[in-house]
Structures are given as structure tokens and as C-alpha cells.
Amino acid sequence: MKHICKKLVVLWLGLTAFAVNAEVQIYITEGRDDARPVAVVPFKFESASEVKVEPPHDFAKIIADDLRRSGKFKPVETAELPQSPSQITDVDIDAWKELGVDGVVYGVVKETAPGKYMVSYDLIDPYNDKAVMESSIPSGSYPLVDQSFHLMVLKTKLVNSDNFRWAGHIAADEIYEALTGERGAFATQIAYVQVDRLAAKPYNLNVADSDGFNQTNVFSSKKPIMSPTWSPDGNKLAYVSFENGRSEIFVQTIASGQRELIASYKGFNSAPAWSPDGSKMAMVLSKDGNPELYVMDLATKRLTRLTRHYSIDTEPSWNPDGKSLIFTSDRGGKPQIYSVSLAGGDADRVTFEGRYNAGAEFAPDGKTIVMVHQNNGNFHVAAQDIDTGNLTVLTKTSLDESLSVAPNSSMIIFSTVDGQQKVLSAVSMDGRFKARLPANVGEVKAPAWSPYIL
Amino acid sequence: MKRSVQLLLALFAALALAACSTTEPADDTTDTTVQQDDGSDAEAEALARQRAAEEAERQRIAALLENTTIYFDFDSDAIRSGDMELLEVHAKHIQATGKKVILEGHADERGTPEYNLALGERRAKSVAQLMRTYGVSGSQIEVISFGEESPANPGHTEQAWQENRRVEIKYQ
């Protein structure tokens, strides 16, 4: 958020021009039958000035697209809406009940000065006339009409051209949470590696909003870039770069661009993973002869070795409680997922189904681990319930890798191959919703979903 | 160590000279077989045959040294039996010349990138290990893994994967 808000308008315009050509766009490839119908009414536009400058984006469309992309909602086509209210007193509750929608969003974008806007939006539940009492809307902030009892969300925000889209994602998060009880993850970002083999610097580490818009470049190189991962505060990225001829781990502050080389040991340096509190980083180093898990104290740079085995041990992911890590090891002959305590001790095997399980990630809620699971020669995304141990294959694509879970644990983003192109894809935690984010230029891979950015 | 390298270099030089001189066998034979002695004629023939064999061997080795890539099965670091001879020839060449090599390990795109980085290193180390058994000093070998990040063939087919599961011997 911080690094988005503070950009100069001029710079923003430049980036927009770039984004138009290069942004990653999202297509839903498999929807859910049980997606809930909602209505998002196009917002009314008002301007005090004589020269009306339309807002840079369609606020209602940002919200509708976000809700659709969650897989849980099916926004009704604009042409089928019974009316176009812009404030609570305009709302005809019966008309929306007849349409049969679980929620109605409407609002006003008011231009207060060139490039500055006041955005007001409401969410109502047509079926619940006590909704306002169950919401956090302060009494007295809405007109005393019957319709007001249906209010679930009532907001007014001051935004500008810079953060207009971002404000739309925040609004979508508020609406999503009011409708599901679960925090939304639309106002988040994705880091990924884009490869254009014909470019002078083919390897790019980019960051875009969760819907693929506002792509910005973080680092470019002539040599491969791997394994980007976010710091828990969302301000930094750790990644592996081959710029010095072999794999080393760097940490880069996104806003300033400042980079620090933090692991350049003999052998390879790979698979960085920040601890949940951000004070430590798990990594895999082969400096002692073969790949082992280490934890680096980021303040002192001191390493603690966690595994001792001649096999491959790699791909650490922190348990959200910060006390243990899961990792991939082929100590049993084929790669499987194991767990090891930060306090040390033996590793426990976690996966038992299938001959190849690797690249496991803990969902932030700590209830599920997701992994790459080989089945009949194909590599799919699979989820394993921590309590029951049940493993469910979520995808039909065959070259899935680099899994990353949304901060609200609702969705997994991953890299796969579609046709002959390397693309990003997303699947809901239950496997029932799928979307694809093809690259317009080259190939995209190694996605990493940011934590909540607020 | 340095002595043995020099010795081998001398040996190589001698072999090379011997190979070169086979281009003018006529002069050699007329000079030494004036008497039409049957025994020396057979000797010369044997010598010529030996020289031809040495030349063939030299050419075979030169051709093998041109080939600097070996390939692997999926999720395996086992060197295929058909590559043993190639690696022996490289090992002897590295040992004889004192050259340094980087062994670049690579994997195909299947499975996860971080596991594949480890797999690429394991493949390169498997080659390094074999070279050491042929007498190459560890200080002449550097192992670098690129995992699946630097494919020889960027395609997504069985053919591309075969080409990408490899170790490249890079002479420095």
C-alpha cells in the first residue's frame, strides 16, 4: 500500500502505459455451480468542477471482478439489474429480493478536485432487515428509512488517481468479509518471475496487484531468478539470483530497491522462507556437502543447522506457529514431505500418498498443507488436511509447481504450463474454482502471494 | 602432482609426434628396408598398423572430447553406462592437461524448482565423483547447479525434458 500511494502521478501514468502492454490478466477457467449471486450496480459519477474528469477506473467493476475471482460469487449482468440506486434511500428492497441476490453494492464516485475523489459505497442484504444491527456501522451514520436496516457495509473514502484501484480492492475485501465472515485477500499483491528469452535482461522479478494490474519491476537480470518470497510485513522480497554465476540469496526492500546479499556460501544457496515473525529465515545450503535446512537469525546472520542427512532436504515452509517447518526430502528414496521442529530432533514424515510429493506450503491458517503431487506421471496441486491427513488432488493441469497460498487461505496460486506456455494459475482450496493468468510476454513462473498489505 | 602432469604432457607430445609422422610412411620404409628383408618388412607393417591404430584412437578421443554433455533419467543422478567411456576420456584429458572444469548440473521442469536445483547439483556431483575415481583432483572441478532454470530446450515436451536433464562439462 505504502509504495503504491506515494508514487507521483507522472510516474504512475508511465507505469500505466507499461502495464497496458505487459500486465497479467485473469481468466476463470472453471467456475463453481454454487457461486452466490450478488449485484454490483455501476457507481454514479459526480463532479463539482466544470471540466469533469472521469475516474481512472470503474470502481464497481473492480469490486465485481474481485468477487467473481474469489469463485464464491457470481455478479449479475448489469443489463439484468432492476434499478440503479446510488444511495440507500433509492433502494427498492423488494425488487432485489425478486432478483434473488445475496447482496447489493452501489455507490457514488465524486470528483472533489482534479485527480481526487470521494467514494461512497454500501452493501445491503435484501433478505435481512436486522443486518445493520449485526454490522459495525455506527448508528446515526445512515438515514432513518426502512431500507437502512438492510445495510451491511456503509463507507466513504477519499482516494486519488494513484490508489483508486487499490481502494476498489479494499472495498471488495470489506464486502467479501461482510458476506462470508472471512477476511478478503484482494488488496494483496503477487510477486513472480517473468522470463522473456529474447530480452537483453531476460529474467525479471515483478510485483502486481492480486488481479494482475499495476505490474512493476523489482529486479532484472541476465541470469536466472528463483524462489521469490515476501517478508511477513510485505515490505521486502527474498529471492535467489544467479547474477554472480551461481545461486545466492538476496533480500530486497521493495520501496527503495535496496538489496542485500545474505547467503553466498559454497555450493548452492536456495529456498528462502521468512519465519512468521520475520526475525529468521529458513534456507537450504549445500555448503556442508549436500542440501540441508538451516535457519538464519537475520539480525546476527548466524546459522543453525536443522537437518543432517545425505539425501536432498529442501523447500522449507514454516508452520504458522513458528515452531516447526515442513520440507521436502528424498531420504526414503523418493521426495516426500517431512516435518522438523525448530528445537531440533528427528524429522517426521508427513505425506504417504503417492511416489512424489514436493514443494509443500503451509496455508496461513495452519489447517492445510498444499504441495506438488505426482499422479500417473503428472504433477498436480494437492492439499492435505493437517488433522485427518487426507490428501485431495485439486488440479487437472500436469506441470504444476511453485505453490503459494493467499493470506486468507482461500486460494492457491501456482505456475503451470498451458499449451506450450508457462503461465500462472489459481485454484481455490477446495479445488472447485480455477483461474488462469497467462503472460502476454514470455513466460511467468514462481508466484508468491503477499501477506495482507495495509 | 606437478611432475606427473609434466610426464603426461610429455607422453602426449610423443604420441602426437608419432601420429603426425604417419603421414610420410613411404620415406620411412624405403630408408630402413633397402635389403628387402622379410622380417623388417613385417616389422614396418606392424609399426604402420600401430600408428594407424594410434591415429584412430587419437581421433576417437578428440571426437569424444567434443561431446561435453551427458544426460540423465528423471529424478536420477545415475550415470548411464554408455557415458562412462566419455567421462573417462574427459577425466584423463583434464588430468593430463591440468585444466579446470565447471560441471553444470541441470534438471527438467517437472517437479519443483528448488528440489530440481538440488537434483542438478547431485547430478553434477555424481559426475565429479566419477572423475575423481579416474584421478582428477577435486581442485580442478567446480560444481554449479542451475536446476530447471536454464533449459537447453525451453519446450515442454518429452524430447525437451530429455535434453534438459543433463550435466555440461565446461572447460575453463
Automatic annotation (TrEMBL), chain B:
SUPFAM superfamilies: OmpA-like. Pfam families: OmpA. It comes from the Bacteria. Keywords: Cell cycle, Cell division, Cell outer membrane, Lipoprotein, Membrane, Palmitate, Signal. The keyword Membrane applies. It is found in: Cell outer membrane. One of its GO terms (biological process) is cell division. Residues 59-172 form the OmpA-like domain. Its main location: membrane. It is a lipid-anchor. GO terms for cellular component: cell outer membrane. Residues 1-18 form the signal peptide. The Tol-Pal system is composed of five core proteins: the inner membrane proteins TolA, TolQ and TolR, the periplasmic protein TolB and the outer membrane protein Pal. They form a network linking the inner and outer membranes and the peptidoglycan layer. Belongs to the Pal lipoprotein family. Part of the Tol-Pal system, which plays a role in outer membrane invagination during cell division and is important for maintaining outer membrane integrity. This is Peptidoglycan-associated lipoprotein. It comes from Kangiella geojedonensis. The gene is pal.
